[in-house]
Every structure is written in structure tokens, then in C-alpha cells.
Write a structure and sequence with these properties.
Layout (H helix, E strand, L loop, with lengths): L2 H13 L3 H6 L1 E8 L6 E2 L1 H14 E12 L5 E12 L13 E13 L2 E9 L1 H9 L1
Parallel strand pairs: 1-6
Antiparallel strand pairs: 1-2, 3-4, 4-5, 5-6
Length: 133
């Protein structure tokens, strides 16, 4: 599968809540570099993160643009996160069903047709401003 097709399928699975399909697209030793916090290594930690996010936030990604290098081993995506804050996340403001709209981006390493690294960036201060109101 071409890198752009892989990332498109990954985000389609995200938007449809198919986290098992997302996991199937990851290398076993995937590195997940989150915007805030330590790097998570391996599918198990990625699965735990996804479960937490699904419980705490409802998000849909729009305005997706995906880029890939010619070798097919690096990719990037730019998108808008449209979300609802469902349950208070530790260290963050109290959740009351607030909605937010936030530009974000992600970078990927691809190895043997699987995603080996996901690095996600967004502006946490802007997210906080939107949910605190």
C-alpha cells in the first residue's frame, strides 16, 4: 500500500472509531510521539492511549491533506480536529461537553507497509482557551 493510501486509511479508521483497524496498520514496535508527554513504544501502549482518548474525547478530523515522500517511508498529514470534551482529563480543565476546533498535524515513518512512528502536534494552549471559554 502506498504511504498516502496507508495514512488515508489510518485516519478514515480514526474517524469511524475503528481503533482495531488503526492498530493493524501499526508496526509492533511503533513509537507514538504525543504533543505533551513521553514517547509511547509498542502497540499495547498505543491501544491504551486510544482507549483513553475515546473515553475522554469525541473527535472527527476534517480538511485532511496528506503528503508522502517518493520513497514511501515518510508521510505527513495536516487536518482540523473537531471535538467534544467528554470526560475530564487529568491535569486539564473540567469537561462539560465543550466543543473545540483546532488545527493539527502529524508525521509518520513507514516501514514494511506499516506505520512505525506517529508524531502529533497541536496547540494545547489554544485547545485550553477554547474549552475554558
Amino acid at each position: 500500500m502506498h504511504a498516502q493510501d496507508l495514512i488515508t486509511a489510518y485516519y478514515q479508521a480514526f474517524n469511524e472509531g475503528r481503533t482495531d483497524d488503526m492498530l493493524a496498520m501499526l508496526a509492533d514496535d511503533v513509537e507514538h510521539h504525543v504533543n505533551e508527554g513521553p514517547v509511547r513504544k509498542g502497540k499495547e501502549l498505543f491501544a491504551r492511549f486510544n482507549a483513553h482518548m475515546t473515553d475522554t474525547y469525541r473527535e472527527n478530523l476534517t480538511d485532511m491533506v496528506i503528503f508522502a515522500n517518493q520513497a514511501g517511508d515518510r508521510a505527513a498529514a495536516e487536518f482540523v480536529v473537531n471535538g467534544t470534551y467528554l470526560k475530564t482529563d487529568e491535569g486539564l480543565p473540567h469537561a462539560q461537553g465543550q466543543t473545540y476546533r483546532l488545527p493539527a498535524g502529524a508525521f509518520f515513518d513507514i516501514r514494511d507497509g506499516k506505520i512505525a512512528r506517529v508524531t502529533t502536534y497541536y496547540n494545547l494552549a489554544e485547545w485550553t482557551r477554547q474549552v475554558v471559554g
